[in-house]
Design brief:
Layout (H helix, E strand, L loop, with lengths): L1 E5 L9 H24 L3 E3 L1 H4 L10 H12 L4 E5 L5 H13 L3 E4 L7 H9 E3 L6 E8 L3 E13 L1 H13 L13 H4 L5 E9 L9 E7 L9 E5 L2 H18 L4 H15 L1
Parallel strand pairs: 1-2, 1-3, 3-4
Antiparallel strand pairs: 5-7, 6-7, 7-8, 8-9, 9-10
Length: 270
């Protein structure tokens, strides 16, 4: 089934940064809608992602809109993404009603996979945390240096329970009861976890394959120890998307821009 993705593109804002962030948000929303459609076995038609690659939004907007309406006529359904309706979307909705094409409203939360939802609920960035720009070595056809970005994250309860299980299986007290333990007697009430993730310029996902967790409690034998939470390819992609979303809000920079700054600093170091 062909579905027409009807969502905002034109950005809002009073400053260059606000306008850029708004545009990025709109583009990412449309991309997520396309992925959601594919996951549902549909073929997404998103003219505002396609025609804007070679048509000028400022000079050829009307041409792009008219071409989009021709695409719409080939679709079985129109999906309105979110609650905001722009002028361009109104024209698309009017066309769909005129042609008798069914219209559905899709809320953004509906488009989240279980992995995406987990990342959204358990991953956020600390505004006050330092960004660690660095480099590492990789081997493709020859040894080379790659840019890296280290970020401290604020982890949700589910991630903390994963580390609790790892530590308990290793013979240490968990921070929270996970198997009916007595909190006062069997749990480590003084310990603390620090979660870190890394962006890199080498892997396809642009994010490390693990979340690193450092444990701190001077009275525990594993104080200073580092635990690694392995991530599948799907989880790496979802983590990158979540970090990209958070970084734009917290730092005003996308993950790619953070990596670009790491590349710049690496080049200065020679």
């Amino acid at each position: 089934m062909n579905v027409y993705i009807c969502s905002p593109l034109s950005p809002e804002g009073s400053t260059g940064t606000e306008i850029w962030l708004s545009l990025e948000e709109n583009i990412n929303r449309a991309k997520k809608a396309c992925r959601f459609a594919i996951a549902k076995g549909c073929v997404p038609y998103a003219p505002h992602l396609y025609f804007t690659q070679f048509l000028s939004e400022a000079k050829e907007r009307e041409l792009g809109l008219s071409l989009g309406l021709k695409w719409l006529a080939q679709c079985n359904e129109v999906w309105i993404i979110g609650n905001k309706i722009t002028t361009g979307m109104q024209a698309e909705i009017h066309k769909a009603r005129k042609l008798g094409i069914p219209i559905k409203q899709i809320q953004e939360d509906q488009m989240l996979s279980l992995v995406d939802r987990f990342m959204r609920e358990n991953i956020s960035l600390y505004p006050q945390a330092e960004i660690h720009y660095g480099s590492d070595e990789a081997y493709v056809t020859h040894p080379c240096h790659i840019a890296t970005v280290g970020l401290e994250i604020c982890a949700g309860y589910a991630l903390q329970l994963i580390v609790d299980r790892m530590r308990k299986d290793a013979g240490f007290k968990p921070l929270e009861p996970i198997d009916g333990e007595d909190y006062d007697k069997d749990c480590d009430q003084e310990g603390e976890y620090y979660f870190y993730v890394g962006l890199n310029d080498y892997t396809d996902s642009k994010v490390d394959s693990t979340i690193s967790v450092m444990f701190d409690n001077s009275t525990s034998p594993d104080s200073g120890g580092v635990y690694e939470i392995d991530l599948s390819e799907e989880e790496q992609i979802a983590l990158y998307n979540r970090l990209d979303e958070e970084a734009q809000i917290v730092y005003g920079m996308s993950c790619e821009e953070l990596l670009e700054e790491a590349r710049r600093q690496m080049s200065l170091r020679g």
